[in-house]
Amino acid sequence: MASHGRAAFHSHSKRLAEWLLGPHMLAFVPAIALSAFWIAGELALVTVALGLPILYLLAGTLTDARAAQIREVDATTGLPLQNQLETDIDKLGLTCRDTGRKSALYLIQLEEFDALSQRYGQEAAATLLERLAERFRALVREEDTIYWLGGARFAVLVAPVPQFELETAIQLASRLQSAAEEPVSVNMQALFLSSAIGFCLSTRSPENTTDAWIKAADTALNEAARNAPSSIRAYSAEMGETSMKREALTREAFFALDNGEIAPWFQPQLSTDTGRVTGFEALARWHHPKRGTVAPAEFLPALQDSGQMERLGEVVLYGALTALKAWDRAGFYVPCVAVNFTAEELRNPKLAEKIRWDLDRFDLAPNRLTIEVLETIVAGSPEDAAARNLAALAKLGCRIDLDDFGTGHASITAIRQFAIERIKIDRSFISRVDKDQEQQRMVSAIQTMAERLGLETLAEGVETSGEHAMLGQLGCAHVQGFAIARPMPFDETLGWLTQHNSKLGALPQIRGGNAI
Ligand code: C2E
Ligand code: CA
Ligand code: CA
Fold first, then answer.
1. CATH label of the domain that carries residue 294
2. Is the pLDDT of residue 149 over 60?
3. Which residue among 308, 340, 374, 488 is best mutated to probe the pocket of ligand 1, counting the most ligand atoms within 8 A of its Cβ?
4. Peptide bond preceding 229: is omega within 30 degrees of 0, i.e. cis?
5. Which of 24, 179, 265, 405 is least enclosed, having the fewest CB within 10 Å?
6. Using DSSP, how many helices (H) and how many strands (E) does the chain show?
7. What dihedral do alpha carbons 201, 102, 212, 300 form, nearest 10°?
8. Which comes out higher in pLDDT, residue 22 or 125?
9. Cα–Cα distance for residue pair 373/45, rounded to 1 Å
10. Domain span at residue 287?
11. How far is it, in rounded angstroms, from Cα 231 to Cα 194?
């Protein structure tokens, strides 16, 4: 690693010079002066006694000046760091302005770096960074600079050139990305990473300041990370506006929970056998004072960014249990309500206890609450906190649904270990199932697997009556989707239930039986 070797040499020679010229060396002045007297007499004694301290004083100032020029580099990657990037951009910005030359700032983020370093250890992570630093170095021109910004981030600053168009910039970005995504061999093991890259051309920076340019590249990187894995984004003025809107939303979302602006809506789930309602899924909605109803896709990331997911969970659970009580009071039989839980919430060691307490407080049997978890959670270790929570909740009597089934990587063993009772087949398998044989084969296969494992199934995102009918034929026990009803505020559920039940009453029952 040439740059690493160079960096190590600089740092050793710097340390040696500091030691030789350090103030402790003045302690040897009397000894040296005495030797000078023995060898060359009185004049030499005076010269050494006075001259040496003056010499050190001068040399000290010189090394200080040299030290200021030596770029501080990271020991692992041999790369300069964040503060150096800022200093370099200060200078480079001026050059671009004065000469009309162009440059670009790239930020590279390795996407699964934290997980990899947890799994393989700090040493493997350091080797990985070192290898990537070498690759990036080999890829750019001698005048361009690579920086390590800490954690999983690198930066590349392109030295000013007469022309640097968007197309060239994208080509460099994809070369950097390919370099980051080539497997890295560490301890005889091939490690694979994906990366997000955001960049901003010097000509596109919203202002002529170092901060504005770095922030613009950072906005592009965030946008790329949002579209993970392996995205590349160039900063544009519109991107800046979107990110400002998003920041405003994050600030507002923080208060929206306190103000009671976020509450669950409810979407019914039906038995394909009887047509009866077997439950409702609680789905969060934000009643924004100016923007009207905002869907979770827009505000969940904001709540996640501000660490509010646990509070959202409490609000939705409270709303869901309140709804169950109200349906009971109104004389509707709604067997259960499903609430979505994130990995974060499931890691709370007090979760099962808290839910038990909430159910007690509402005087509701545990089997009236369904916990919806994503496949990604179940793909984790059965020893972790989420698994323990799910086991405790299942033991308490709550039902566990596996959400978005087919999109993650849950193994059959994991499904068994995690006390799952029902799988929710993802909409991607459901759409056009009545018209597309391939879809039918997939649903049948899932259905067979579920039956063998003693699991129930629910088809999500059923949009047409054709899909509904086909799913019944394929043996899916439950359906949920726009074909039945869209999610609605609690108040509307009462009218909807009345109407649905009266429709059911009017229909002859094809196959009787228990609704659940
Ligand atoms: P999900 O849990 O998979 O929820 C189903 C989503 O599909 C809902 O979107 C629902 O409105 C939508 N949907 C239902 N039927 C149909 C259909 O026939 N066609 C189509 N195209 N879509 C249908 P929504 O409400 O926008 O929620 C999106 C996601 O946000 C949810 O996906 C869930 O992951 C998350 N989410 C919603 N509420 C909560 C919550 O209270 N807590 C947590 N942690 N996540 C929530
Ligand atoms: Ca769900
Ligand atoms: Ca789902």
1. 3.20.20.450
2. yes
3. 340
4. yes
5. 24
6. 20, 16
7. 10
8. 125
9. 85
10. 247-506
11. 9
